[in-house]
């Protein structure tokens, strides 16, 4: 069926009855005080966010040898202000309320203070993984730290970013567990 040539429809379809484009809807603006209170009450010094990488946008790309060449990309990035006593490249322990993982540390000013950043899609060391290249570059899984009980109140979506965490040098694991 031929519906004819495409007809331009933007920006008309985006505009409201008043002819304006509402970039800050009232429900979102009204939720800002609750959001700020949540941020102010975060008990841990750091929050964890995920990151996407061009050469590993999806986990299936981790099984392509050409895309997995080069340095380890499953690193946790920390701002220098948050990496006190830690060294670039060392393995660190990352803990959330629901789990813990280890990953190599990358100290960088590309993330804000108070934020740790770990790439999405790794964790290929689990039993049953049949991706040989990916298994050689298993990395740590962000999902092992994500709290299933954290839900965004406004949208009802899972809150997969902003997970409260702590970090320690991996060799301090025994000492930290006893504290």
**Overall spatial form:** globular
Biggest sheet character: 6 strands, mixed, barrel
> Spatial order of the strands in the main sheet?
1-5-2-4-3-6
What string, H for helix and E for strand, traces the elements in order? HEEEEEHEH
Low-confidence stretches: 175-179
How many strand units? 6
Give a description of the structure.
The protein has 179 residues and is of the alpha/beta class. It contains three helices and six strands. Strands 1-5-2-4-3-6 form a six-stranded mixed β-barrel. A hairpin with a 4-residue loop joins β3 and β4 (100-107). The radius of gyration is 21 Å and the shape is globular. The model is unreliable at 175-179 (pLDDT under 50).
Give me some keywords for this one.
179 residues; six-stranded mixed β-barrel; 15% helix
Write the SSE topology.
Blueprint: H1 26-40, E1 46-51, E2 76-78, E3 91-95, E4 100-107, E5 115-119, H2 132-136, E6 163-169, H3 173-178
Parallel strand pairs: 1-5, 2-4
Antiparallel strand pairs: 1-6, 2-5, 3-4, 3-6
Kindly summarize this structure in a few lines.
The protein has 179 residues and is an alpha/beta fold. The protein is built from 3 helices and 6 strands. β3 and β4 (100-107) form a beta hairpin.
């Amino acid at each position: 069926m031929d519906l004819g040539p495409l007809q331009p429809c933007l920006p008309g379809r985006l505009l409201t009855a008043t002819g304006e484009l509402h970039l800050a809807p009232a429900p979102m603006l009204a939720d800002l005080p609750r959001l700020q209170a949540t941020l102010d009450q975060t008990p841990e010094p750091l929050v964890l966010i995920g990151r996407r990488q061009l050469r590993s946008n999806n986990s299936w790309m981790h099984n392509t040898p050409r895309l997995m060449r080069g340095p380890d990309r499953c690193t946790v990035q920390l701002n220098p202000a948050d990496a006190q006593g830690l060294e670039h490249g060392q393995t660190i322990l990352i803990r959330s309320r629901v789990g813990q993982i280890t990953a190599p540390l990358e100290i960088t000013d590309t993330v804000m203070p108070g934020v740790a950043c770990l790439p999405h899609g790794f964790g290929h060391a689990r039993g049953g993984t049949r991706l040989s290249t990916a298994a050689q570059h298993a990395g740590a899984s962000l999902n092992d730290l994500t709290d299933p009980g954290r839900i965004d109140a406004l949208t009802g979506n899972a809150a997969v970013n902003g997970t409260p965490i702590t970090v320690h040098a991996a060799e301090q694991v025994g000492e930290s567990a006893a504290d």
